[in-house]
Queue: 4 jobs
Job 1
Amino acid sequence: MRGIMKHRNYYRLLGVSKDATAAEIQHAYRICARKYHPDVNKDKDAEARFKEINEANDVLKDPVKRKLYDRYGEQWAEAEQRGYDGNEYVQRPDDEQSFYAGASGNGIGEEQVRDLFGHLFSGNFSCRTDDPSCSFGTGMQSYQAEIYLGLSELIEAGVTSFSCKIPQFNPASGQVEMQEKRVKVRIPRGSIDGSVIRVKDFNKTINSIGEDLLLTVRILPDPRFRVVDHDLFTVVSVAPWEAAIGAKIGVDTVNGSVNLSIPAGTRSGRKFRLKGKGLPGRDGRTGDMIVEIHIQIPASLSVEEKRLFKELSRKSQYNPRTADGQKAGVAAAV
């Protein structure tokens, strides 16, 4: 049975009710993931909480697993392995040892193991590089799973590793057993959300036929950036006076901070493109970063700041509520 944590209520972890919609669950997950992402939250318990949030999301986003969880609670994975689907029970022999027995018994021989894999372990299972374990579903030719990566891993495009559990036939016992396997995978340059990485000969079967592992890349939510293909989008706040008279501000990118010149008269919502500050592409080019300006009004003002704003209000000829932007009785410049 899979499990990476002492059980906690999945719905409570994400802060949603048991009757929450799939969209509500995903919205809550994104908020929680941003809050507890280890790159952002340096609290010593943040990493553990981040793992819990991801496990909760893995179960609740899958309709079948969610139904099992709603019915069987923390025993949902065991119920799944035994053939439950949340509605009915698929008959299995009472004695699992005889069911997995060798050819000399009443069970199955190794010739039938590959067929059993497709039946007992079908479907796609999620796996994250920070998980201590995960399970994979097998098909006739390959294993399929999802690998969750942060932006830094996509940029470095190096080798990462994770542990997983896969069904393998043990000739000594004549049984199919879940065995842990450490997998190393090289992340190709230019990988984005939805990219598929093929790991050749991931699992040698009982017939010495190498089965491939197909990993679908999923990008972990990042509190700083929204990712669209190879481009990154971010929102940067500026003070009213910076937008009015212009300023040079620091903008965080995936490779450190860069300076961005804000011209005088910049309005909220204006976008600036930083060429080559996005994610690397497979063709050698790099995506861009799109910076959207948000004018942030101070929540509180000092006495002196209030005096200056009042003085500006008296002296300024600007009125945003008129067609020409001028105060009544003031002629627009020609």
Note: The domain at 105-222 is CATH 2.60.260.20 (HSP40/DNAj peptide-binding domain).
Job 2
Amino acid sequence: MQRLKRSLSLRTLLRSKSVESLFPRPGGGAQGPGTPPSPPRPHGFQQYVFKKHCPCELCRQLIAGNSRQGLRCKACKAGVHLWCSEGISHQRCPGKTATSFCRNFSSPLLLPEQGGSAQGSTPPDPSARVDPVYEALRFGTSLAHGTGPTELPPSTQGKVGDRLGFFPANFVQRVRPGESVWRSCRAVQGDREQGRMSLRENQICVGVGRTQGLIRVTSGRKRGLVPAEALTEI
């Protein structure tokens, strides 16, 4: 019976030691040999033509541009002279530098009132700066849907049938009392020396007077004389 107890206790002791070897306690017990640290990576210099003056990392003297008198590391972009490369080639290379994040200011800002605010967040400041591109896009969208601001001059508002909306003022010509509206029956070739204006077929113009078979018309910013047989009054 005693031999059986001794064998059981010996087996329990061996199992506990095997478990401790697999899962060592933190801060206690002998630990297995760890992996050796990787050796530092040296600089990888290559011949480089410096288009701009660059200081040497060792002697701090300028490297002459447009010449092969210098070397540059592929990773950290450090420049050295040919005769200074032996003194710095054994040093550790820091590697590539991390690029900082830069926001593209041409994209609109997402305001808290648009994206939704979380519970407990402070209300947005009314004096906060708004991206001008976003403001212009929102203004253009409101014009496209016919909900433009009311402070626009009435000359940019018009009505066609039952539709009411906004339009550019330079696309419309006002007809004053005593003037008549004409449509060109055919294309007319103009002549600047004689003061005649050229018209396209079916072009609309406003007549302001008639002299010797010619009608003085205006179309936008253009003014001139057009033969009366080429026009039809509307």
Note: The chain has a mean pLDDT of 68.
Job 3
Amino acid sequence: MQRDNFVEAEDAYRRALSIAPDNNKMCNLGICLMKQGRIDEAKETLRRVKPAVVDGPRGVDF
């Protein structure tokens, strides 16, 4: 995504997600879609991001 080729990046993130889904890839795909002006698709993609696991009363404890 560093070279602003969001169509190519979208394809790469979709392929990567099909192999090993995770929140980082899903968020980056959402950003690619937003940068292309595909806001509704971006919103739907970002809604599929799973919330982080909370380990303690303040959130994730390190």
Note: Helices lie at 6-19, 23-35, 39-47.
Job 4
Amino acid sequence: MARKNLLLVGGDPKSLRVMEVSLRKAGYSVTTATNGEDALEKVAISVPDLVISDTKMEVMDGFEFCRRLKENPAWASIPFIFLTNQKSVEDKIRGLELGVDDYLTKPIYIKEIITRVNILLQKKERERIQVRDRKTAFIGTIEDMGVVDIIQTIELGRKTGVATFTSSDNPPKVARVYFRNGKVIDAELGKLEGE
């Protein structure tokens, strides 16, 4: 799997370098920017998987950078972590309202930031998979298809889910076949169960 690319934005070159080296050692590809304006230019060139930004910077502060990033639909879903010296609740609320995913108050511990980065990237990956699965999902009435055709379609599409079959008997009988990645993992018909 490709290394995840992080954009690290901060006005203090020394702190920026320490964090950059630590994140690279943790296996990430890291791009740095010295302010929000510089960061927007770098995002336009190469969209990062996650942004870590100071709130206080020259030229364009972190809040304005975040606002501009999140208002662009192509960049709005990029996970965003704010770093701050301030313990102000108002600043945290302001950041959260802009769409920040996490907020860390300095001093920052490298293990903590790496853990938070990992968690946010895993969350983004789960969301991406869920969206992909929703796009490939199918639902509907399949009266014109036989059971074998249905199972083959599910197998070829490597679908995960439940196929429910209802008979026209009175009372109707309901059968369920459970799939994971196109493979039958369980089946049931009334009190009968089997794999």
Note: The helical segments are 13-25, 36-45, 62-71, 89-98, 110-136, 147-156.
